[in-house]
Amino acid sequence: MAKTSSTSTGPVKKTIAKTAAAIGNAAYENVVGDNPLKEFFCDQLKDIYWAENHIKVALPKMIKSAVSPVLQAAFQDHLKQTEGHISRLEQAFELLGKPVRAKKCQAIEGIVLEGESIIAETAPGTAVRDAGLILAAQKVEHYEIASYGGLSQLANTLGLADVVKLLEATLAEEKETDALLSEIAENSINCEAASE
Fold first, then answer.
1. C-alpha distances in angstroms, 90 versus 80, 157, 188?
2. Within a 13 Å sphere around the CA of 12, how many CA atoms are in the beta-carbon half?
3. What does the pLDDT average to over 73-86?
4. N or C, which end of the chain has less CB nearby within 10 Å?
């Protein structure tokens, strides 16, 4: 009989719990200065900072390409949120005493290019294009959710409580946007696209 996933992950969870208990607060004592984990964390902040700025440039084209007024409004709202995400990241750099710098994010560059190809390959003024735009936008959201979730965990490990608050605020907004896009797709656009 095959083991269930909860049984197979049990030993992993026990090992993690033992390791965490053994480490205790030692991890927090090591984060006063720069260390490899903190350097990695700052490098990943640069990556998501570039991503947010790239998304800020891409969103106006998505707004213009969308047909549904509801979808246009959702993209417009997310553009405003993205400006806030950029501001929070700048605050995080300041809290860390680091210069605000960006590092090219290959993942977002690729996802945005994919979104642009959806616009190019779908007929203007159609619900099919809107469905494609939602799919492209949700790929961006899922990348951001993974990034902010992981960064928040690292910041917590590093004892950076103020930075965690900034990252968690953005993470919550990214999750809300993803849920809103799903709702728009399920309640209207996907059905409209299916009937075209």
1. 16, 20, 37
2. 5
3. 98
4. N
Contact present, 127 and 192 (Cβ < 8 Å) = yes
Residue 100's contacts (CB-CB under 8 Å, 6 or more residues apart) are: 49, 89, 90, 93, 94
Can you tell me whether residue 65 is helix, strand or coil? helix
| pLDDT tens figures, 107-146 | 999 999 999 999 999 999 999 999 999 999 999 999 999 9
Six-digit token pair at 18? 């033992």
Question: Tokens for 144?
Answer: 């951001």
In contact, 119 and 61? CB cutoff 8 Å:
yes
Backbone angles phi, psi at 2, to 5 degrees: -75, 145
User: From CA 53, how far away is CA 103, in angstroms rounded?
Assistant: 11
If you count them, how many residues does the chain have?
A: 196
Q: Are 189 and 71 in contact (CB under 8 A)?
A: yes
Sequence letter at residue 98: K
Indicate if the pLDDT at residue 42 is higher than 60: yes
| All residues at 6 or more sequence positions from 59 whose CB lies less than 8 Å from its CB, including other chains | 75, 78, 79, 82
pLDDT tens digits, 143-191: 999 999 999 999 999 999 999 999 999 999 999 999 999 999 999 999 9
Distance CA 24, CA 27 (A): 7
Residues in Cβ contact with 154 at an 8 Å cutoff, skipping those fewer than 6 apart: 37, 40, 41, 44
Q: Measuring CA to CA, which residue among 6, 41, 25, 40 is closest to residue 167?
A: 41
